[in-house]
Each structure stands twice: as structure tokens, then as C-alpha cells.
Amino acid sequence: MAEETKNMSHASKSQTEALFPQSPENLTGFELLNRVEEVSPLVVRDDQYEFSWLEEAVKKARRLGTRFSLVDTGFLSQEKIEWLAEAGADVYSSDEVNRELLQLEFIQLACRRGKSILAYFYRGDLVSNSESSATQNLNSLAAQGAFLHLADRSPEEMEMVAQLALACRRAGSWLVYYHRGALENSLVSVAEAGVWLHLSSRAIEDETGEKFLLELVNLTQKRGGNVVLYLDKELSIIFLDDFLRTKAFLIFPHQIYDYRSPYRPLQDKAGRQKLDWRAYYLYPRLWK
């Protein structure tokens, strides 16, 4: 738990809006190999170490059965990223890196061979026109099994989000969607497509919102997705208990409740849940 908390705190420090986390420590190559034994998943940027150390660390993680998360900053060539992916590294890239589609497709193929994943965070515009290059590229990546991550889209873009989620499902991957605003009807279509939906409790204002969220949980779970709710604002104990009974996920990002608090049993119950590592980008947090 201490390592998990440390990793989440480092996620908040970034070079560009947050997708490139800073190194937790200034480790030597030998210390990196030791850390593979201590932390899973271990998050490392591709520009932190010489390639040979990264390669050894990835191979060691595979031998130990632990996960190695490689953040693609564009520093390494496509071929070296492929090599690490095939050795077992999960690759986390984004449109901020500006890799060509063909490069990403080769990386995804390497991930498939290595039984790892390519997680791709797209922050650019989503155009409803199916002929747009961005739309074509995302559809291509989804069809090949990449895990797509999107955040805070306009209601007009949600139809495209749902289409991409369906393409991911057909290929055996997921689309993960982070929504920081109010609950809105456009979320129904993406829930029906089976997304993993990350939400803040601030989006829920009354009992109507609680019922709507439970309906979203039901819709997305039927299609293989789920909901991850971040308790940024306290909600009704009864509602939160109902929420956890659905097997959706509740995260307490800001505090540990005292044992006398009525929220403590809920926090303990939520802490026993195991959120699939593929259901978030690097760390379980509400990305924007």
C-alpha cells in the first residue's frame, strides 16, 4: 500500500500535463533491477535508463511474473520499443508523442507477441467524419487490440467514443473513458458499448443522479465494462453500499477514514476490490 501511495503521488508530477510521470528516484541500473522485485507494476519512462538496463529489467519482470509499464516519451526508436514490448513491457503512449500510425501498429503487434498491451491516450479532436485521419487511426488501433484512453469529450463526440469502444471490444481490448463533468445522457451510449467509465462523485447531485449512475453500471457491465467512482465528495452511505454491491469500483483518493467513521467499512470493502490494471492509464486516477 505504501508503494502504491508513493506511485500515485509521483503520477501527479509531470512534464506535460501528466502523461510523462517523473522518475520516483534517481536509480542506478542495478537499483532498477532490484526495484522490479519490489513493485508491480513498475512504471518507467523510456528516457530514464540506457536501453540495455531497460531490457534486463523487462526480462526480469517477465521471469518474476510482475508487470513493467514503459512510458513512451518518443525518446526510443520504434524498433527498441517493439523489442521491449515483445519481451513483456506494457507500452503507454499518447498522441503527445506524435508517433505515426504505422509505428503504433508495429508496436501493437509486438505487444501481442509478447502478451503485453499497448495503451494509447488520445487527447486530440474526435471528428465524427469517418474519413478523418484521426478517426481512421484510432479505429485501426482499436481493431488491432490496443487499449484506448479518452477523457472529457463533448456530447457531439460521444457517438464516436461509443464506436471506438465497440471496435475495442471486438478486438478483445477496452476503451477507458474519464469523465470529470456532470452526468449526462450521452454517457448512456458509451456505457452500452462496454467502456470502463471513470467518474467523480462530484457529478452526483441528488437521488436522480445516484439512480442514473447505477443504471450506467448495469449497462456497461452487461458489455464487459465497469465503472470506477472517485469519492471526491461524500455521498450517501446507503447509495455507496448499493454501488459496491454491483461490483463496481470505489476509490478514496484523498483520505483514510478513522475507524469510528461510518465511511470506514465502505473504505475497507472497497480496498479489498482488485481493479484490473488494464482499466486505467498507469495509475488509477481521474485523468483529464
Class of the largest domain in CATH?
Alpha Beta
> What is the CA-atom radius of gyration, in angstroms?
19 Å
Number of helices: 11
What pattern of helices and strands is seen along the backbone? HHEHEHEHEHEHEHEHEHEH
Shape: globular
Describe this structure in words.
It is a single chain. The protein is α/β, with parallel strands linked by helices and 288 residues long. It has two domains: 121 residues, Rossmann fold, CATH 3.40.50; 152 residues, Rossmann fold. Helices cover 42% and strands 14% of the residues. The protein has eleven helices and nine strands. A nine-stranded parallel beta sheet has the order 1-2-3-4-5-6-7-8-9. α10 links the parallel β8 and β9. α2 packs parallel to α3. The longest helix is centred in the C-terminal third of the chain and has 16 residues. The relative contact order is 0.09. The N terminus is likely disordered.
Short key terms for the protein model shown above:
288 residues; single chain; globular; nine-stranded parallel beta sheet; Rossmann fold; 2 domains; alpha/beta; disordered N terminus
Short structural description:
The protein contains eleven helices and nine strands. It is α/β, with parallel strands linked by helices and 288 residues long.
